[in-house]
# Entry
Amino acid sequence: MSRMARTRTSGRGPRGSSTLLAVPGGIWMLVFFIVPILVVVWYSFGQKPGLYGTHDNSVLSLDRYGEALSGAFLLTFANTLQIAVIGTLICVLIAVPFSYWLAVKVTPKWRYVVLALVLVPYWTNFLIRTLGWQILLAPEGPVTVLLRQLGLVDAAFSMLYTKGAVQLGVVYNYLPLMILPIFVAMERLTPALREASKDLGAGRWGTFRQVTLPLAAPGIVGGVVLVFIPLMGDYITAQVLGGAKGNMVGQMIAGQFQQGQNWALGSAMSVTLILITLLSVVLVGAVGIVCGAILRARRRLPIERTAAGATPARTGTEVPA
Amino acid sequence: MTGTTRDRATNLSLRIFGILVLLFLFAPLLVILVYSFNSGRLLGAWEGFGVNAYQTAFSSPDILHAVGVSLRSSVVATLFATLLGSALGVAIGVRTGTVVSVIVGVLALVLVTPEIVQAVSLMPWLTSLSVDWGIAPLNDGILRLAIGHSLFATAVVSFLVRGRVRALDPALTEAAEDLYASRWNSFRQILLPQLAPAIGAGALMAFTLSLDNTIISAFVQTTGNTPWPVYVLSSLRSGLRPELAAMAAVMLIATLALLALAAAVLARGGSASSTARALVGSE
# Structure
């Protein structure tokens, strides 16, 4: 109805001029996003011409991709993927119960105060936050000293510049991005919905599994995407907390463009990073859809089975009568 | 009876877990705040309590310059992102079709492209635009930073505004038309006030995202125009000093004050819930 009305007046309604509104932003994105990335894709087929050149496209080949996917480079890719996958999973494991607590258990009056508290670290500079962890984890920092006084670790223990520190740092830096979408999804879970589930005979765990989690699923998928993608490209956290052990793909790419001056190889790595990231996201999406379909099918079955089972049973009792 | 005991135990453990997570989120911020009062020469080595780090921070020309560069480029980036993003958001919110799908696709791509890739692609491109094509303004350090920061922020603003446009009641615009409002008046008096919360939240996000940006900044910056996060990153090598924590603490307090102000302004027009949603961008 409203659509028809708007189409009718499209000559003078907001629709008429709205396409023009997209022009400046479209040109901006074309000039400063699409073209530069296409240039990088073009560089990736070239080579490093000599000691002082950065790129040369006179001979086109896929050799740089071969280089990017061999030996040390591949190892760093695998390392980055591992840190990103584990980091994303830990974020989910923390964010689901936390969001559940925040959306269901905390009274509405306090809910948004707590949400604001969750957002405070997110609004502060992530480099500064990471430096805070560097101080905490340093050999003479508060955490290590406390652990040493408790006798839990020996004098040589230091968590800084280990893989564990990097893992902790990325979980910390991206946790708010996981909590937000899951909280927003769970917030739609009104008390009435949970009472309905209870009235229909579901226990607490049953309600959580069959009502809360399916409602939160889109939020979890959103959170996974929000966390995983920047995590794959992040290298600052790893640099600050991991030192030499925190080598991530992002740092290798940066190195090729800054110190190495090998733009061709750096470009091939960039393209590979985009492709691997997108592929992972598509994979996660596909797994999510399949899992969702299986869960839905399984949830539907018991009701259908009892309905189907009830009818023959009743006819069965009716026959002898 | 056992059910309620178990309920209570579950609730209690959930609450403890929640508070632990909040402590975890605040731990490094508290550390920075505390260590900004370290009177020693090195940030990580606590010597004693003192405010000399704050005095040093506000008398160090390098630190003040870096913060100034950050603030100026963030204001310009926010202008770009808010203007371009709001216009894009209205366009993709009102219309549908192939062109809109392409634009939405590109904006989504901006959001999912790793920042380092945007950084390494912008650096040679901006240089070649300014050197080979002779576009002199692109030599300006502030403008280069603002362009780099504006990409992600523009996409964020567009999606925020699109969400708001989609939720609007078309009857209002139609009523304006029926009452013979001109297209401009209908836009200014009907559409814009309704979009204001989304645009405001978007501008705020753009500003803080830009202030926070490290990776793109490290690549597109010019000599003499190093923004604050890149300055901090580069001082990692030379050793961290307490004045960095002092300036970080000041900026943290300033950001929180700005957010509180924004929340208060937004709250005048709606409930606490919608304010929070606008701030986190789910509306």
